[in-house]
Amino acid sequence: MKEYRVCEAPTHHPDCNGVGSTKDHFTSKAIARARKWSHKKLNDPENIQYLSPSCHQEKDKNNAQIAQQVRFQVNGGTIRFGEAIT
């Protein structure tokens, strides 16, 4: 039986049902790979939160662009003030 938790999103999507039924990494897998994190560090309980599907989808909207910025910086690139995606 799947364990359900309260959605832990700091701000909730309008369609949030309040149930944290999906596991989310605060630091995404793509960003963790770019930073060369170990599997253990990626899945540390401090890097995990449980979100409703709608809150999880909202959080993940910018992850690909953010990961691209991290890879750019890891490879020596500079992002100027106002250019970063938040």
**Mean of residue pLDDT?**
86
Largest sheet: 2 strands, antiparallel
Low-confidence stretches: none
The tally of helices reads: 4
Give the count of structural domains: 1
Shape: flat
- How far the N terminus sits from the C terminus, by CA atoms, comes to 36 Å
Strand content bin: 5-15%
The helix/strand series, from N terminus to C terminus, equals EEEHHEHH
Please provide a written account of the structure.
With 86 residues, the chain is of the alpha+beta class. It has one domain. It is built from 4 helices and 4 strands; from the N terminus they run βββααβαα. The strands form 2 sheets. A two-stranded antiparallel ribbon has the order 1-2. A two-stranded antiparallel sheet has the order 3-4. The model has no long low-confidence stretch (mean pLDDT 86).
Blueprint (SSEs and pairs):
Layout: E1 5-6, E2 19-20, E3 22-25, H1 29-34, H2 39-42, E4 48-51, H3 53-60, H4 63-74
Antiparallel strand pairs: 1-2, 3-4
Keywords:
single chain, 86 residues, alpha+beta, two-stranded antiparallel sheet, 4 strands
Short description:
By secondary structure, the protein is of the alpha+beta class. The protein contains 4 helices and 4 strands; from the N terminus they run βββααβαα.
